[in-house]
C-alpha cells in the first residue's frame, strides 16, 4: 500500500495551513478534546418510536447522526499519521451488552450506513449488528483480542507498538481496519438504556475515531408555553468529546444545531435526505 493513502479515507489537501499544522502541535486526541452538551427534547421522538414498529429512541438518535454526517461531511474526518483525512463511509460504533445482567460481557459493534438511509434503514442495519453482537459466535474484534491477550506481555506490547507504527505510516491492512469499532466516524454509548445519565467520555488514542457521544436517560422537563402555562416534556442529554483538529468550532456548532433539529423533529428522518 503506498504511503499517504489509507483504505478508509482520502487525504484532505485543501485544508488551511493552520488546520494542517494542528496535528503536529497537538499530537494526541485527548490533548485536542473539546466537550459539549446537547439537552434534547425527545418527546416527539418517543411518540414516533411508540407509533412505528421496529424503531426505538436509540435508532432515531443513530439516524440523526447518520443524516448529520451525510449533510455535513467535514465532520466525518479523522487524523492519522499527523495528517487529515476525509472518511469514505459513514461508520458508527456502539456497545452491545450480551445479556441484561451485571456479569454479562460487552462487545463493540461497527455498522456501515449509507448517506441516503432513512430511520427504518438505520434501524434494520443496527438491529442486524446487535443480533450478531449478542450471538454466541465471537465477532472479528473479539477473536483478535482473544488471540492477542493469550500472548506474553512483551509480545502484546510489541504487537501494539507494531500496529501503531503501521497505522502511522498508512501500512495497516484494510482487513484489520474494516471490522474495528475504533476506526469509525462516531462511537456512541446508550447509557440511558441502563438508566443513567450521560457522562463525558475520553477519546481513544488508538484507531481514528474523533467523536465519542453518550446518550443519557430520559427525564421529564417542565417548560412554559407562550401563554405562560406549564407543559411537561421529555428530555435527554447528549454529551460529546470531539477532536478539534478535524474541523473548526463554527462548523461543528452548526452541525450540532442540525443534529438537535433532526432528533426533535424525527419525522424528517423517515424520508431520505436531499443530497447534492
How would you describe this protein?
- With 276 residues, the protein is α+β, with helices and mostly antiparallel strands.
- It has a single domain (9-270), classed as 2-Layer Sandwich (Chloramphenicol Acetyltransferase), CATH 3.30.559.10.
- The chain is built from eight helices and ten strands.
- Strands 2, 5, 6, 7, 8, 9 and 10 form a seven-stranded mixed sheet that branches. Strands 1-4-3 form a three-stranded antiparallel sheet.
- Strand 9 and strand 10 (230-243) form a beta hairpin.
- Helix 3 crosses helix 8 (249-264).
- The longest helix is centred in the middle third of the chain and has 16 residues, at 119-134.
- The protein is globular.
- The model has no long low-confidence stretch (mean pLDDT 91).
Summarize the structure.
The chain is α+β, with helices and mostly antiparallel strands. The protein is built from eight helices and ten strands. Strands 2, 5, 6, 7, 8, 9 and 10 form a seven-stranded mixed sheet that branches. Strands 1-4-3 form a three-stranded antiparallel sheet.
